[in-house]
Each structure stands twice: as C-alpha cells, then as structure tokens.
Amino acid sequence: MMGWHDATVHAFAFIPEKFELLLDIDYILQWVHPQEGETYFKFWVAPATLIFENVYDLKIDLEPALGIELQDIRRADPKSPANAESIGRDQEWRWTIEAHDGEITFAAIGFHQYFRRAPSFDSVQSLPLDVRGGFSFGRNTGEER
Q: What pLDDT is attached to residue 144?
C-alpha cells in the first residue's frame, strides 16, 4: 500500500490534451525508527513523478507558505467514466490530494508513479534540488505503479 504522508511537492502541471495531472514529488519509501541513543527518524526518499490519468473537474485550493507537503491522497465515489469505451476503463473516482495548506480535488481513473532515481537515506524528508536532479516530470526510468 502506498502512502504520501509528508511527501514534498516540488512542482505540478496539467496537460490538457492528455488529461493528465502531474506532480514532481519526493516520495518517502520508508520511515526508519531512531536507533538507541538517537532521537529522530531517518528516511529513505526518492524523487518521483506521480501522474493521474483522464483528469477532469480539477479544483486547486492551496495557500502554501513555504512549499507543499502532502497529508494524504484519497479516492471515493467510484463510478463509470462517461468515456469508458474510448479509454478502455470502467471505473473512475473522485480524488482528494490533501496538503498541509489546502487541497486539490478532481475526477480520474487512476495513477502511475515513476521513481526517477534510487532512494537516498537521510535525516530529512525532502531532497535538495541538486540531489534529486532538479524539477522533472520524467517517466522514463524506475518503477511504475
């Protein structure tokens, strides 16, 4: 099961001709409990591209002060898409991307997530731009989910 709690969003975009919502995130693959004598968690973090498909009815209500960190991503209200025959999918959901400072809501059939680099082990949950390879919506390497 995937979880996006505390994932940092570095950039997002919408590609109208493909009906795709893309997020450039730092995905936390694992929270590592402090060892004896340590106080804080450490993290395995990798830059990833999260892409939602067949997106419509997009609403963005964010007021980030110092960036965007996710709380959760949820889906609800399954139904048959109006264009089910042309896209070859029989289910879509109402998605909510909940951030610390607002939310993004939309309808979509699902998502793919691509890891663009191997994870780094560190005491922070977000990677510096030089370590993560800058901003990217790449989907050509890593694992598809």
A: 39
Q: Which among 43, 55, 75 is positioned nearest to 12, based on CA atoms?
A: 55
Q: Is the Cβ–Cβ distance between 104 and 111 less than 8 Å? A: no
* Burial zone of 85 (CB within 10 Å; 0-12 exposed, 13-18 middle, 19+ buried): exposed
List, for the chain, all residue ranges whose pLDDT scores fall below the cut of 50.
142-145
| Total number of domains in the chain | 1
pLDDT at 140: 72
The rounded distance, in Å, linking the Cα atoms of 111 and 119 is 21
CA distances from 32 to 2, 38, 125 (A): 16, 11, 11
- Cβ-count burial 101-139 (b if 16+ within 10 Å, e if not): eebbebbbbebebbbbbebbeeeebbbeeeebeeebbbb
How much of the chain is helix, strand and coil, in % rounded to 5?
A: 5, 55, 40
**What residue numbers bound the domain in which 108 lies?**
8-132
Is residue 55 assigned to a domain? yes
